[in-house]
Structure formats: structure tokens, C-alpha cells
Design a protein that fits this description.
Structural class of chain A: alpha/beta
Radius of gyration of chain B: 21 Å
Number of helices of chain B: 5
Number of domains of chain A: 2
CATH class of the largest domain in chain A: Alpha Beta
Number of strands of chain B: 3
Strand content of chain B: 5-15%
Largest interface: A-C, 46 and 44 residues
Largest sheet of chain B: 2 strands, antiparallel
Distance between the termini of chain B: 67 Å
Strand order of the largest sheet of chain B: 2-3
CATH topology of the largest domain in chain A: Rossmann fold
Oligomer: heterotrimer
Chains: A alpha/beta, B alpha+beta, C alpha/beta
Shape of chain B: globular
Chain lengths: 397, 115, 303
């Protein structure tokens, strides 16, 4: 069914189709309409789920952690400071290996207060062990929410589905709502590992010693480091799982095919712009304009951010003349986090491109296509590598 | 659509146990997490069956020692018995016995006797 | 409705906690926990934040508790219980009893927000706070329920300046149907309260006074005796508030119109009260007397 609706509604429809059983809800701009839509769906019985209006974001993820541990498919959503408030629970959900899916409607972080879009919220949580996928339009939002549960339940790790606050969450676009029957074909019922069950009692997430130790039967049980190492290896294999899930989704729904990077005019591009989220689609207008002027440029929209698909990135970027990384986040005092990740992925490859970092859009600072065009054009003609000290676009004072 | 068919049922399947054992820390119930906590004792509680009320009457009565033992190492039997493998020697049973039937004896003395 | 009284003879024998765990010798929580689990029964799921109970339950991979337990972060106990309940409803498993067990810190300080939210939402669970009156698991730091003048590692010389936070009153103000207090020294009274709580829908809160030999500074032998003394002096009272109706229970009920032991006797038994002096004792005795005078008025039907 085709519909024209807001990005937050696309997300809510995805949650409904995925058969989520427990939704934890706490409002925060610009996620709130997602939460409201879910409450409408549950209250009108269009969706059969437990809707829990919690008293904080920390509790929102706590509810999901517990519900997932007890064997139910769980979901919540948040932005910015809400995401940060649940930070310890992010680490917990990943360490507890729970296939929770959460929409992060990207918004800048205080202080000072901002309600407008940038990527600092989710990107600052890149080390928590959550899978992070960035969406570029509403179709991707609804599709990714559905895929997220499939990925999460295959590897047993939680997934953040990120999309830009206001730019995607509140704007209206046409998109297709998949058929419930097709979603059920694609996404099987959730079978938990260790669900809390009086018939088979276990004590979950107990204090774990640094060293391995004998269990009640005399077998050796792992220490903390083994358990965490397994999270790491399972996240590395998530890169392939993401590709497999995307392929399977394409089989059923006819959409997808670029699980890690969405490339636009990159085949022969000497210059490649790398960015994430809606910015990568805006960048396509810049590419079109510059191509008319004979500039050999393309844009790679990175979709999977964590685990970082380093080999795919290296393959896409090595051998280019220039790589320009545009991002809406900053590791303060240093450089953009995506820039660091890309440099790391390129380390050890032959034919290193010249590389530059551009920070923009912080706290929702408007990103004009004209300004992007100027920046890319100038960077192309300057043809300089600037591997440190990012440039800022759009500063006014 | 999302029925949980066999939640957490891996206790019986040792292969599944191994596969999941490393995903997260989940502990199985069993005694002795703190080791042989009987080794903590300096004093050992000893029940004088001539004074112990249920023992004397040969019927269910009193059982204060069973009720108040923090570690559950005293049985609700006639007479009550103490599991010295895990008794920590806290002395609560001796204090709460209304018949003064429990004496705390130096553990070292008992160990010497056993030799 | 008066609580049906269980006796030692008919208290179930079946144990739900394995011995050989890491609780201190003479731990008051151990008495509370083993008794409470007998009341909760096998068809239960427990939620436990960082606390002495986390340690008692054991380190991976051995668990002292024979029931399914979810360890959770410090602030999230009641929210986690909410999540378990939501999953039980979603899976159509309404008979599973969900019980949260938290210490005083995890209830009255860091855990209060989540507990308040769960009470406001009317979650169908039992929240048991074992109150050993400090952050004992981390080595005896003061908490919101540490009584006034008590010495702890963070109130080492002049003692705690503030009064004990009245958590049952805060929870009662949420209008839930069952709020009760209990004590490790009166396990049968506690057992009956848990059994009653199971039969009441919605949130239930039980606040259990839990003597701690290591943290309070007394020989483990006297855990139960000291717990009794707290009640016999009228410092800690056993009561129920069922649908708003207040009633003293057990040993506290028996103390109406009778002479109470002087609070000074209680303070003399524990090193943590070394900072007490005659004036402080006089003030506290007067407060206890005033509180009990009010109880006596309520009992006589005078408001």
C-alpha cells in the first residue's frame, strides 16, 4: 500500500509490521510523533502490543531489556539527551545480547540545548556494541526497522535505526507499506536464547569474574573478557549478516541491494564525497551540478555505520584522487568520528586518496546545497590532503 | 505470530548450552558459590539432644534454629541437623534456641578430636 | 482484613536458596530472602539491582537462587520488573509472580524514580526493599534510609545529620493498595505479608528492616535479637496499609498500651551509634513516644 506520511509514521508502521510485543514510550523532540503514532495503533487495537508509558528514557530501555530477557520482541525510540540518559543501558543491552531495536531520531545534544538535527547523539554511542544503520528516506526507515529485527535476532545484538530529526522525521514523503503476510515470511517469530522461565531457572547478567571459573557441573565457564570478545566477533560477522538480510529483503520486497554504501556516480569518480543520512541524498544534487561542469565526482552514502564495514569502505574509496568526508558530528578537540573510521579503513591499502573532513549542520545549522556545492568544488580544485584539523561549513561568526 | 515456544529451555540440551554459554553470563542454581563456607567457622554449633525441644518430645515443635538460620543449613527434622559443610558459625541458632540446647564449640578443638 | 498467621510448624520446609553463598555470617538479608522466596513460590521471576543480594545470589556461573532472576542496573529495578510483566502479558503467562528485591539505596535513592513510575502505572508486582540502612554492598556508605546520627564511612565522625527517609510513606502516597513494613527478626510476619501481597492486584510494597552485623557493628549472633529490639523500642514498626487502612501487626500490635524498651538500649548494642549522646537520645526517645501516642489514638479510633 502506498502512502504519503511523515518519517516518524513510517517508523511506527515498521514497528507494527514487525510484530513488536512490548513498546516502551517516552516523549522527546523530534521522536515524539513516533511514540504518539504507536500509542494510537495500540489503543485502537490495530497493533497487539503492550505499550508502557515509562517515566524516563533510562526506564524505557530498562523495560525493553527486561521484556526481551523474558522472551518478547521489544522496541523503543528516542533522540539526543534521551539516548544519553539511557547510555548505561545501551552498554547493558549489548552485553546482555538482547535483540532490541530502537529508532534514534537524530538530534543535537545539550549543552547548550538544541532540538534540531545533527548526528552527535547516535555517533557518540558508537562504542556501545549496538549496530547502527542510517536511513536516507522514509522508505528506508520502514524497511530498515523491519530488517533491524531480522539482523538483531540473528546475531543477538541490539540495533539502532537512525534517521534525521525534522528533515526526515517530520517531512512527508511517499513510501510503500509492505504487506503483513510478506513481513511474516521475511521475519520469523522471535526465539530467545535464555528467557526468564520458572521451568528452567537461570540468573542472568550475574557478576562475572575476570578469570574463567567452574560451573555447577564442573565445566569451565568463561570470564568477562571471553563473553565480551564474543560480542565483538558476533558484531564483526554482522557485516555479512546485514548483507544477507538485505539480499533476502530484496527477494521478498524488491528493494535494497546496497547494504553498506549507497553509491551515486561513483564508478569512475576521481573525487568521492562520503556522508550519512539525508545529507547523502542532498549531496546528489551537488554531484549532478558538478558533473555538468565536468568535475569527476560521486557520493557514497554510508548506511551501516556500526559495525564499521571497513573492507567495503576501503574498496569503495581506495585509488580515488580525493575523498571528502562530510559529517554532522565531532569528536571534540579532534575530528569527525566518521573521518577517523575512514582513515583507519584506508590504512594499509595501496593508492591512498587525499582526504579532507568537513563538519557541518551542528545543532541543525542549515545546510544549503549551494554551500555544499561551493565546498566540494573548491576542495576538488584545491586538491590538497588535509588529514587533520577538520573544516567547518556554515559557521556565521 | 510471536509465540515464544520454548523459552529458555536449553537446560536439557548441552550442545545448545555450550553455544549460548558465551553469549551472556547466566548462572545455574547450585550450592557453594562462595566455596566451602563451613571453612569460615571459628565456632561450631552443637545441638544437645537432651535439651533440644523437638528431640526431647520426639515431635514437631520449636524449630527456631531452622527458622532463623540465615544459610538454611539446619533441617526441620526431629532432631534438627546441621550441615557443617556450609554452616558459617554465625551463632544465631545458639542465641535463638529457647532451651539453650546449642553450644558454640571451638572449631579447632573439634578438628583436633577428629584427628 | 487481618493477616492469616503462619506458624513455624506450618511454614513450608522447601528451600529456594542454596547454601554456601557469599552472604556474611549472620546476614539479616539471608533470613529475609529465604523466607520471602518461600512465600513467592516457584512460579516467580525476580529482578535484582546491584546490592548485597547480587553477591548473595552469586557470581557467574553459579547461582544461589533457585528461581529465574534478572540482574539489572541500579536505577532500573522497578522499570525492569515492568518489562518482565509486559512480556508475561504479551505471552499470556499471567500466573507468573514478578518480584523485585532491592536494598535501601536501590529503592529510596537511585531507584526511587523507577519505583514511583511503576506505582503510578499500577504494575502488578511486589517490590521488596530490604533496608539495612546504608549502602552495605559497597562498604557501609550512608543512604537515604540511614537513621539520624549513625556513623557510616561517609558520615564517619559527626554521623548522619539528616533523618531517615520514610519510604513506605512515600510509596503509600501513590495510592497503591498494599504497603507494609516487616523485619528480619519476625520472619513469619514477613512471610504472611508476602503471601497476602500475592493475592492483591497492582503494585505492592514491603519494606523490611534488615540488621547487618558487619555494617551496624555487632556480633552476628545478635542479628535477630537486635532486629527484635528495633521493634520493641518502637523505632521500627510492623504495619500494613491495605487500601489506605492502617494497622499495626505482630509484635508492634502487641505493644500498644504497653511499655516499650528504651531506645538507648537499642543504640547501645551497635557500634554505628557510637556518636549518640544523652541529648540526642532524649530527642529520639521523645519522637518515638510521640509517634506511638499517635498510634494509640488511631487504635482508639481518635483521629
Amino acid at each position: 500500500m502506498h502512502i504519503i506520511e511523515a518519517g516518524n509514521v513510517a517508523a511506527a508502521m515498521g514497528v507494527k509490521l514487525a510484530g513488536v510485543q512490548v513498546v516502551a514510550a517516552y516523549p522527546i523532540t523530534p521522536q515524539t510523533p513516533l511514540t504518539e503514532k504507536l500509542s494510537e495503533l495500540v489503543d485502537s487495537r490495530e497493533m497487539d502490543a503492550q505499550y508502557i508509558p515509562v517515566e524516563s528514557e533510562h526506564s524505557a530501555l530498562s523495560v525493553c531489556i527486561a521484556a526481551s530477557s523474558a522472551g518478547s520482541r521489544a522496541f523503543t525510540a528516542t533522540s539526543a539527551n534521551g539516548l544519553l540518559y539511557m547510555n548505561e543501558q545501551l552498554h547493558w543491552a549489548a552485553g546482555a545480547r538482547l535483540p532490541i531495536v530502537m529508532c534514534v531520531v537524530n538530534r543535537g545534544i545539550g549543552a547548550p540545548w538544541t532540538v534540531w538535527n545533527d548526528h552527535q547523539d547516535a555517533m557518540s554511542q558508537r562504542d556501545t556494541g549496538w549496530i547502527q544503520i542510517y536511513c536516507c528516506d522514509h522508505q528506508q526507515i520502514i524497511d530498515t526497522v523491519i530488517q533491524a529485527f531480522a539482523i538483531a535476532e540473528t546475531v543477538r545484538a541490539p540495533v539502532m535505526v537512525c534517521y534525521d530529526g525534522y528533515i526526515l522525521s517530520h517531512t512527508y514523503m511517499p513510501f510503500d507499506i509492505p504487506e503483513q503476510a510478506d513481513v511474516e515470511k521475511f521475519l520469523p517469530a522471535f526465539t530467545p536464547d535464555w528467557a526468564l522461565n520458572p521451568q528452567c531457572p537461570a540468573n542472568l547478567n550475574t557478576v562475572t569474574l575476570p578469570e574463567p571459573r567452574a560451573d555447577v557441573r564442573g565445566n569451565t565457564a568463561p570470564g568477562y573478557m571471553e563473553i565480551r570478545h564474543n560480542l565483538h566477533t558476533d558484531l564483526r560477522r554482522t557485516i555479512d549478516v546485514t548483507a544477507d538480510t538485505d539480499a533476502k529483503f530484496k527477494d521478498v520486497f524488491g528493494r535494497g541491494g546496497q547494504p553498506f554504501i549507497e553509491s551515486y556516480f561513483c564508478d569512475d569518480a576521481e573525487q568521492v564525497v562520503v556522508c550519512m543520512g539525508s545529507l547523502s541524498y542532498q549531496m546528489r544534487d551537488v554531484v549532478d551540478e558538478l558533473r555538468k561542469e565536468g568535475v569527476s565526482v560521486g557520493v557514497c552514502g554510508l548506511r551501516l555505520y556500526r559495525p564499521f564495514p571497513d573492507r567495503a569502505v576501503a574498496e569503495a574509496l581506495s585509488g580515488r584522487k580525493n575523498v571528502f568526508v562530510f559529517e554532522k558530528a565531532l569528536s571534540y578537540g579532534y575530528e569527525g568520528p566518521l573521518f577517523s573510521d575512514i582513515k583507519a579503513a584506508l590504512y594499509g591499502t595501496e593508492n591512498l586518496p587525499k582526504i579532507r573532513n568537513f563538519i557541518l549542520g551542528l545543532g541543525g545549522r542549515e545546510i544549503r546545497t549551494r554551500a555544499l556545492y561551493e565546498a566540494v568544488k573548491t576542495a576538488c580544485s584545491e586538491n590538497q590532503s588535509k588529514p587533520h584539523d577538520p573544516d567547518f561549513i556554515g559557521l556565521k561568526l | 505470530m510471536n509465540d515464544v515456544k520454548n523459552p529458555g529451555n536449553s537446560g536439557n540440551d548441552s550442545k545448545k548450552q555450550e553455544k549460548f554459554a558465551c553469549r551472556t553470563s547466566h548462572s545455574e542454581p547450585g550450592p557453594g558459590d562462595g566455596g566451602r563456607t563451613g571453612s569460615w567457622r571459628v565456632l561450631r554449633p552443637v545441638i544437645d539432644l537432651d535439651k533440644c525441644i523437638p528431640a526431647k518430645r520426639n515431635k514437631a515443635a520449636c524449630f527456631n534454629c531452622w527458622l532463623y538460620c540465615p544459610d538454611g543449613v539446619i533441617t526441620k527434622t526431629i532432631p534438627p541437623t546441621i550441615d557443617y559443610e556450609y554452616c558459617k558459625g554465625c551463632e544465631i541458632c545458639a542465641e535463638e534456641c529457647p532451651a539453650d540446647a546449642i553450644t558454640m564449640v571451638e572449631e579447632t578443638l573439634i578438628l583436633m578430636e577428629e584427628k | 482484613m487481618a493477616t492469616k498467621k503462619t506458624t513455624i510448624l506450618n511454614l513450608p520446609e522447601e528451600e529456594y536458596v542454596h547454601p554456601g553463598n557469599r552472604a556474611c555470617a549472620g546476614c539479616g538479608l539471608s533470613i529475609v530472602y529465604k523466607t520471602g522466596l518461600k512465600a513467592l513460590g516457584r512460579d516467580s521471576i525476580l529482578v535484582v539491582p546491584p546490592s548485597c543480594l547480587t553477591v548473595l545470589q552469586g557470581l557467574y556461573p553459579i547461582a544461589a537462587t533457585q528461581l529465574p532472576c534478572l540482574n539489572v542496573t541500579f536505577a532500573s529495578t522497578a522499570a525492569a520488573a515492568t518489562g518482565v510483566l509486559a512480556a508475561m502479558r504479551a505471552q499470556k503467562r499471567p500466573d507468573v509472580q514478578v518480584a523485585a528485591w532491592a536494598g535501601d539505596g536501590g529503592t529510596s535513592d537511585i531507584g526511587l524514580q523507577a519505583l514511583s513510575g511503576a506505582c503510578e502505572r499500577g504494575e502488578d508486582f511486589i517490590f521488596i526493599c530490604y533496608d539495612n540502612e546504608a549502602y552495605m554492598n559497597t562498604g557501609v556508605q550512608r543512604s537515604g534510609t540511614t537513621p539520624q546520627h549513625v556513623l557510616t564511612t561517609t558520615t564517619p565522625f559527626t554521623g548522619k545529620h539528616q533523618r531517615k527517609k520514610d519510604v513506605p510513606a512515600i510509596i503509600a502516597a501513590h495510592g497503591i493498595d498494599y504497603v507494609a513494613t516487616a523485619s528480619a527478626a519476625y520472619p513469619l510476619d514477613f512471610y504472611d505479608k508476602v503471601v497476602k501481597a500475592k493475592s492483591i492486584p497492582g503494585p505492592k510494597y514491603i519494606h523490611v528492616h534488615t540488621p547487618c552485623p558487619a555494617g551496624w557493628g555487632f556480633s552476628p549472633r545478635y542479628t535477630v535479637k537486635i532486629g527484635r529490639m528495633a521493634v520493641e523500642t518502637g523505632l521500627f514498626d510492623l504495619y500494613e496499609r491495605e487500601k489506605g487502612q492502617f494497622r499495626l501487626t505482630g509484635a508492634s500490635e502487641k505493644m500498644l498500651d504497653k511499655k516499650r524498651k528504651p531506645v538507648a538500649d537499642y543504640f547501645a548494642t551497635q557500634n554505628r551509634f557510637k556518636g549518640m549522646d544523652a541529648e540526642k537520645i532524649r530527642v529520639l526517645q521523645a519522637e518515638v513516644d510521640e509517634k506511638w501516642a499517635a498510634y494509640e489514638k488511631v487504635a482508639q479510633g481518635i483521629c
